[in-house]
């Protein structure tokens, strides 16, 4: 007989994103999702908590270590990137490219979701705050308690 996978529901603590409350705030601030803090700057919405264009050299190093920022560390030849030996971008250069939308060489640039995840994880670790939700451990969902699973849970507790 095949064992059925338990039914799950969205985690009530993190609302399905799998992040701790503090990591969610870092994520929201990275993209400036705190809508109440928006001001219009240069035709774009901006706010005081935004940090996607204020990363540090240590955060740049974390991105490069994960194989990111190839626009800065590699040369493009016929659509293929070749590593530029000794090139390691400074945070100021990456931050300016994020603000402008392109590198000094005119290559389009913006932090995607992968960069954001790496940076939020790095900053959470540096600040000593949890990255994953403590209830679902990053899964975004929890087992829906049925009468049977509730009974099993209570039997194991007592």
UniProtKB/TrEMBL annotation:
It comes from the Bacteria. This is Uncharacterized protein. It comes from Candidatus Nomurabacteria bacterium RIFCSPHIGHO2_01_FULL_39_9.
């Amino acid at each position: 007989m095949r064992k059925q996978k338990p039914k799950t529901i969205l985690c009530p603590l993190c609302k399905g994103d799998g992040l701790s409350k503090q990591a969610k705030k870092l994520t929201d601030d990275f993209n400036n999702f705190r809508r109440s803090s928006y001001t219009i700057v240069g035709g774009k919405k901006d706010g005081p908590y935004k940090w996607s264009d204020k990363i540090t050299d240590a955060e740049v190093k974390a991105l490069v270590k994960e194989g990111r920022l190839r626009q800065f560390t590699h040369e493009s030849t016929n659509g293929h990137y070749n590593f530029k030996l000794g090139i390691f971008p400074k945070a100021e250069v990456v931050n300016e490219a994020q603000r402008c939308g392109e590198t000094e060489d005119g290559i389009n640039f913006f932090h995607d979701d992968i960069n954001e995840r790496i940076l939020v994880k790095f900053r959470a670790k540096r600040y000593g705050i949890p990255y994953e939700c403590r209830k679902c451990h990053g899964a975004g969902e929890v087992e829906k308690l049925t009468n049977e699973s509730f009974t099993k849970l209570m039997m194991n507790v007592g």
